[in-house]
Prior knowledge:
The protein is α/β, with parallel strands linked by helices. It contains 15 helices and 19 strands. The protein has helices spanning 33-40, 57-71, 82-85, 96-111, 127-133, 139-156, 171-178, 189-213, 236-259, 264-272, 283-289, 346-356, 388-406, 450-461, 475-480; strands at 2-4, 10-14, 75-79, 86-88, 93-94, 115-119, 162-167, 218-224, 227-230, 294-298, 302-306, 325-326, 334-335, 340-341, 363-367, 411-417, 436-439, 445-448, 463-465. Helix 6 (139-156) runs parallel beside helix 8 (189-213), helix 7 (171-178) packs antiparallel against helix 8 and helix 8 (189-213) packs across helix 11.
Amino acid sequence: MKMKIPENFNLGAASSAWQTEGWSGKKDGQDSYLDDWFKNEYFVWHDGKGPDVATDFMNRYQEDIDLMKKIGLNSYRTSVNWSRFFTDYDNLTVDEEYAKHIDDVINALIKANVRPMIAIEHYDVPQYLQNKYGGWNSRKVVDLYVKYAKILFERYGDRVKDWFTFNEPIVPQTRIYLDAVRYPHIVDPQQWMQWNYHKVLATAKTVAIYHQMNQGGKIGVIHNWEFAYPRSKTYDPDVLAAHRFDLLNNRIFVDPLVKGSYSQELIALLKENNIMFRYHSEDQQLIKNNTIDYIGLNLYKPARVKQREYEWNNNSPFSIKKYYSDFDLPGRKYNASRGWEIYPPMMYDLAMVMKIDYHNFPWFISENGMGIENEQKYKNSDGIIQDDYRINYIRENLYWLIKAVNDGANCQGYMLWAFTDNVSPMNAFKNRYGLVEIDLENNLKRRMKKSGYWYADLISKRTLPDDSAYSYKSTFEENKQ
């Protein structure tokens, strides 16, 4: 028996500008936050590799797009590098060489029958704006971002019909200002929340402009959903811990962008912890009137949480961990390279959250994938990586996602992270995610892995085995019984 993948269900792959382009052609003063971090702390990036070379997509994009066509990708989600798009960020002077590169990539994708899906910002706020205005702490940066987005729509909106204001908008400030694990390691929870808010405001303002332009496309955001399961579903303190985890990691963005307003429970928590964001009186109506058209959700691993084990130190700066402790599920299946739990039924559970809590708002999986170390040891005699572990991972996750679609979820697609191996923050090329290998020892040679051939067959036949190697039922299925 086979599970049929609906014909209108998108099967694609994703990456980003900064993780692939490299610095070829980059001019002085065009550093992004990521570039500045790499220059100042190159030693925390695995083997000292980072955005300077990446996969050299700047020069080799046609090779990659040819492989996308060979695999038959329905779409490719990437981004425009904000820091490289201008030579003057205050006066919005466009770097025409870089702008032409974006033109060329879009045209090449369309010629290959691959739909371009473009994020306007993916961790790459220009370092100039960070130094001068404090980055997303400033409404000036919000206004400059909105003007930047409008220029993108004017230049590329005739061909690009899928736009996203941000990819994972919560991540940079969480890692910089809350966890302080990323450069420049500043503990400032109030600034964390201000960045969160200003990205919501920037999204609403950008949505308003895009809709006014009537270009016939859609605009949304990509959010990295952190799906929390309580240790015990019958122990109220554990359930509350999972709820607050969800509120501060997910609803903090998804509610205002999809529903048009923050939950009052979240606002109360922010005030209680003295991290309420600054806002203008007219902002509330602006956010309410300009919700997104659809949302992409990045989903990799579950969070298992329980009631806090120890009393919180009230002299400590705010952290989301104030409200929970981690719980390691005994016997869990996990990726030994990342330490991340593998739990494919989470796809179904997220789909039901979107169906029930967000009234079947349109969405898709914008990232899901498996990063493995030392993949070269899995090469066969022909030099092709035999990544059956990735094939099984995709198959199991897609099984639960299509099952949810068959049960009425409004999920419109699945995008694998990533199309090629690429650079990740700090991990660099340590964990490989691609359908296509980037051979660092052989002039960045591209070579399809076994999963690339398998994904091509999946896209062509649009069927899955009507079973899953995963024995667990989803939370929502258990609740039906």
